[in-house]
Design goal:
5-stranded antiparallel sheet; 6 helices; elongated
Length: 296
């Protein structure tokens, strides 16, 4: 699952992404979900822009290679030399040591921020210039971190199982005279509280309080829903409302990435209503049809 995607953009930075602000990457597709490209007057400037983009983008998911790429871009063997196909093998230990050092710097900040990331972070409006100036220059005790949320947005998820929205935002934390930027995402998913945090390119992910009885699409009343397995276009609908179908019967055909995917029944029963039509674009997990209740 991609709980939130908000790429950082600026001069010389271009993204080619195959995902929406909230999406799902399934095993049916290449795991490269986005391509980040930077240009500059010099190689050094282009690398700097890549680093800034990775540090300030929101890619809220359990795991990605963003932190690893950041380490590569800051490694002298990459920035000061011409890397070869043996680069990762040759620099393996240096990359691991640098990653541990970066993590040591941000772990404390992450702990300070976690408690402020509730299911939603409530702010009345983005911080004003005056508020940010006071935050940066009006310092108090070094030992007490100060946190300022500077931007927040809520992204809805229409026609999907799972979370109803994700809250994404950015902020600043000041613990030792220097404000450090961070970005975050919070949501709920299948009974779990999801929190994701990015501090200077180091990412943290927590999934807590899962309640399996409320897992949409996986158990209980949702276990047999007719949903889209991938994002794509409905090219064929093979059944009509009122049709009696059997388990594993193909109900619809979706086209995605120039491939066709069958939507099959996961139970036997009667289709009460079809919610899409041929030619319609749907997202992954879109509900395609309703079953008739057994009592009807």
């Amino acid at each position: 699952p991609v709980y939130g995607f908000s790429p950082y953009t600026s001069q010389g930075i271009r993204w080619e992404a195959g995902i929406d602000a909230i999406d799902e990457v399934t095993a049916r597709f290449d795991p490269m979900i986005a391509k980040l490209i930077a240009t500059g007057a010099t190689r050094k400037q282009a690398i700097h822009r890549l680093v800034e983009a990775l540090k300030h983008s929101i890619l809220a998911m359990p795991i990605s290679n963003a932190s690893f790429l950041l380490g590569v871009l800051q490694n002298a063997g990459f920035t000061e030399a011409q890397p070869t196909t043996r680069f990762i093998e040759d620099e393996h230990e240096a990359l691991r040591a640098a990653a541990a050092a970066r993590r040591a710097k941000t772990d404390g900040l992450a702990e300070a921020i976690w408690n402020h990331l509730g299911s939603t972070v409530s702010i009345a409006a983005p911080a004003s210039i005056q508020e940010l100036t006071l935050f940066i220059f009006g310092r108090t005790s070094k030992a007490t971190p100060r946190i300022q949320f500077t931007q927040e947005m809520t992204v809805p998820i229409p026609q999907r199982c799972g979370p109803k929205f994700s809250t994404m935002g950015r902020g600043l934390i000041d613990i030792d005279e220097t404000p450090v930027s961070f970005s975050y995402c919070t949501t709920t998913d299948k009974g779990a509280w999801v929190r994701w945090l990015n501090i200077e390119g180091e990412t943290y992910f927590k999934l807590e309080g899962r309640d399996e009885s409320s897992a949409a699409g996986k158990s209980g009343a949702h276990a047999h829903e007719v949903i889209a397995p991938v994002p794509g276009i409905v090219v064929k609908i093979l059944i009509a409302p009122g049709a009696t179908v059997h388990d594993k019967q193909t109900l619809m055909i979706l086209e995605s990435m120039k491939m066709e995917f069958e939507v099959q029944a996961t139970r036997s029963g009667i289709i009460a209503e079809i919610l899409v039509q041929a030619g319609q674009q749907v997202q992954s997990d879109t509900l395609l049809a309703h079953w008739q209740e057994d009592s009807e």
